[in-house]
Amino acid sequence: MFKPLFRGLSQIAKYFTGELKECFRDSGAIVMFIAGMIAYPVAYSIGYLKEVVRDVPVAVLDLDHSSLSRQLSRMTDATEQLTVLYKPSSLKDAEELFYKGDVAGVILIPSDFEKNIYRGNQAGITVYSDAGHFLLYKQVLAGCLYASQTMSAGIEIKNLLQKGKTLKQANDAREPLNVNVYSLYNPSGGYASFVVPGILIIVIQQTLLIGIGILWAKHTERKKYHYLKTAINQRWASFKMLLGQSAAYVAVYVITSFLIVGLFYRIINFPDKSGLLPVFFLLIPYLFSITFFGMALGVMFRKRVHALLFMVFISPSVFFISGASWPVQALPPVLKFASYIFPSTPMINAFIRLRIMGSGLQSIHSEYSIILIQMCVFFLIAWLAYAIKLNSLRKQVAVGSLIIPD
Fold first, then answer.
1. Which residues touch 218 (CB under 8 Å, ≥6 apart)?
2. Please, is 48 exposed, middle or buried when counting C-beta atoms within 10 Å of its C-beta (0-12, 13-18, 19+)?
3. At what angle do helices 237-258 and 37-47 cross, to 10 degrees?
4. pTM of the entire structure?
């Protein structure tokens, strides 16, 4: 009774070991599975280690040359966002600095700045910044607002004190509504903590898909199928082959994923409120879902370069619709639906909620269910694709156009 079961498990184990050897025998697979999995996250993370852009260089064009205008310039330079590097004498000189890239913004203080303030009129400054560089623009705007609002508050409180108000009364009159803001999960507002965790999940998906595609395309390109000798006359061969080979890919990626979402994640010091065990509970079905997806796609590629080009071509699209850089809920309905073709979409939401927000496994029930459904659907598609491919190879062997390897 148990002999067929043990025989089937033994055959699955042969496919597992055979594919595992194939992974480490192929240079392209090694590059994607190991080198790519380490190099990509390191490259992405090192670029964003500072988290927040600080000391953005700006030029202050002071046309007033008064004590208040010089005070505003010093206050601007004292903010963490900006540093005043240049004080040009004309707008033309400031424009030249801006277009040369020496400064990211120009702050113009008009000639009647101090006069308007002392008269009780509203004084204004003009800020020029390139909104095409979103992060630089944000910091230039934030630094200017902080300096100008601080100066404005000081002037207003000083006027109230001169009218006989106490310091507390002056502060209350200046700010009758106090707003307390608590930045949860990403207190520093760091760009790396926002975007890199999602990129890590996409890197796992894309490198695994490319590696599987390269391996399968190699077999078709060279017409050398290492599994064909075992599978040619075997019952349920496509099913056993699918289980054995997928287990080999997942085994490799469990180790490399541990290096990325475990050790590397801790070294970079990204937010972590869950630990590794819940993450791996989520990661295993995610890896199987990607693997079955990749195996279903892999049988279609006839050349290694085709697999590489196709996967690299879809990578930017996967990033944009995954929810890593833009909320999935804000996508058009068609793109929102298309985003759930890829396992990375529910995985990113679940990973961030679990790892960064520390909300627990119960809060990711819907995402986990989607990943399980994807895994089952991709398994059935891959099984069908394997069965069709194996049947085609058997016909080629029968007519003599394909030789079974020794």
1. 26, 28, 304
2. middle
3. 40
4. 0.80
90, 92, 95, 101 alpha-carbon torsion, rounded to 10°? -90
Query: Under a CB-based contact definition with an 8 Å cutoff, are residues 292 and 250 in contact?
Result: no
Q: How far apart are CA 303 and CA 76, in angstroms?
A: 58
- Summarize pLDDT for 306-323 with one digit per residue, the tens: 777 887 788 778 888 877
From the number of C-beta atoms within 10 Å of its C-beta (0-12, 13-18, 19+), residue 287 rates as: buried
Q: Where are the domains of the chain?
A: 3-49+192-399, 56-174
The stretches in the chain having pLDDT less than 70 are: 1-2, 4-5, 187-188, 222-234, 393-394, 396-406
Answer for the pair 51, 193: CB distance below 8 angstroms, yes or no.
Answer: yes
Domain 56-174 bears CATH identifier 3.40.50.300? no
193-219: pLDDT as tens digits: 777 888 888 888 988 998 888 888 777
Q: Which residues of 161-185 are buried (b: 16+ CB within 10 A; e: fewer)?
A: eeeebeeeebeeeeeeeeeeeeeee
In angstroms, the CA 169 to CA 47 distance is: 47
Please give the helix or strand (H or E) that residue 314 lies within, else none: helix 304-321
